[in-house]
Amino acid sequence: xxxxxxxxLSLEWYNKQKSILVRNQDDIKMDSDIPAPKINWINKEDAxxxxxxxxxxxxxxxxxxxxxxxxxxxxxxxxxxxxxxGTQNDVEGTLPxxxxxxxxxxxxxxxxxxxxxxxxxxxxxxxNTLKKILDNKPDEEKIKCVFIDPPYNTGNAFEQYDDNLxxxxxxxxFRDRLVGxxxxxxxxxxxxxxLDDNAIFHAKLLMDDIFGKMNFMGNIIWQHSLQxxxxxxxxxxxxxxxxxxxxxxxxxxxxxxxxxxxxINYSNPxxxxxxxxxxxxxRNSLYRPNLIYDIxxxxxxxxxPPENGWxxxxxxxxxxxxxxxxxxxxxxxxxxxxxxxKNQKGRVPESIWFDKDLxxxxxxxxxxxxxxxxxxxxxxxxxxxxxxxxxxxKPEKLLKKIIHLSTNEGDLVFDSFGGSGTTFSVAHKMNxxxxxxxxxxxxxxxxxxxxxxxxxxEDKLGVSEEVNWQGGGSFKYYxxxxxxxxxxQDGTGDFNWRLxxxxxxxxxxxxxxxxxxxxxxxxxxxxxxxxxxxxxxxQEVGTKKRVAIISLNAPDENNNFxxxxxxxxxxxxxxxxxxxxxxxxxxxxxxxIAYESKPDDLEVIKVPKAIFSELEK
Length: 617
Fold this sequence. Notes:
The chain is an alpha/beta fold. The protein has three domains: 134-254 and 366-475, Vaccinia Virus protein VP39 (Rossmann fold, 3-Layer(aba) Sandwich), CATH 3.40.50; 260-361, no CATH class; 498-615, Trna Endonuclease, Chain: A, domain 1 (3-Layer(aba) Sandwich), CATH 3.40.1350. It is built from 13 helices and 31 strands. The strands form nine sheets. The protein has an eleven-stranded mixed beta sheet with strand order 8-7-22-9-21-20-10-11-13-12-19. It has a five-stranded mixed beta sheet with strand order 25-26-27-29-31, sandwiched between helices. α2 runs parallel beside α3 (167-184) and α8 packs across α9 (422-429).
């Protein structure tokens, strides 16, 4: 039997029973000193696996397996269901080019010109598959913006998914997906995660560990509700959190979108040739003795300094007076700093203490009137479909803000908890590429029809008017394919031979992170039956190389014995070509090799027996 989770959750961490001594790094260290603790939980070193109920579109009871278990590392195929492409035609009965409508053309063949992808299936397995696709692409074509809205672990069972995971199960689920997402992101990518109080602090520690604390951008407070909500005797809950991290510490967020209402305080009462302006603060936020001095007005009046001094030196003030950026009030009792509208690229915070370099930074509190609320999101869905889909969908304005801050047109946006498809709808309308994953049946029932309405321009809701969406675009719809392993009716395990021997061999190597290499010709000097040349995979870890060879015999083939000569022919060719540290031969064939004659760096592993033996531990 596979390992099952038992026991109740308690707060655990490495070296819980020990204390931390904080001291100067130059102090003498002792042999008994230990590293500072990291977040830990029950079965942290294992992975979480669950069978999928395809009809209901959710995972069944989860249980723990080894993190190298092929079921959680397997790169499954993407099985194309349809392609959808919008084309503009004249409305029937109208004059040419007077009135247009979007017609959606469907196809059943792969189309390399279409970038956008919707995948129905488990998102962890989909991440494995997408890694094989994106690994071969240049960095600029990888994911620039990840938005995920994972189960919040609230203890409630929603209709669409089981949200009642033990915290240790939730941590493993979240960790494994974050690690997979990290590998898919471009070096200048950002990730945004919405959570509430139940998991926010655990998630922060996890993301610090995976993305690095130096790449933590901020914790946004999003006002998701304007109505009273909560529990009797406690607070009325009006917010969720959005954690934001970047892939590396050399990149910056974009600027908050500047709306017309942010310009209401700007005017030009003195006909300044530089245009509209507003007055800004001239005081220093901290005490600076060198900035304590009097300023003389043109008529000789003296203006005394504020308590902490002026913002600038005497020389700088003289230059700003000369340029007209600083003027005096009519009675010459105060100086006025002009902040020009033409210099404002983003949104200016209300605070008067920000330095100029900080004026345009996005703010950490997002109000519902600008970013939307759960109620506005539900209205968007209801207006599209006539009924409610989720308890807590995300509004299009929220995704518009996130995508605006972290991408440019043409960049790739990703969401592995697709939900109602808001991320894909907004990304599409904002002319970004997108990839989405959703396990549930509403991939067919909600996301698919929603995206068709976006392409046909029937969807005029959400941010459509703000971004001037006019319809068009395309996407491909896939189902995640079958596993390469299967259980027979008698309970024994085997490969899923319906998929074909070569496909199973390729998927097997990919699932164990081997890159298939065709540069070596094993047939040179040896005859393989029916052209069944073994497949080679290469894995490089630092300066070390590992090579895997897989040679299978399908039930309808007569290649059931691996002779001594064949094994050593493969071994010698691989050793000479790659000079690896380890060579693994995976096979379901009989093997002719004596233990004492086997080289130390060669291991012959019988599959699928070894796989199922591991699963039964």
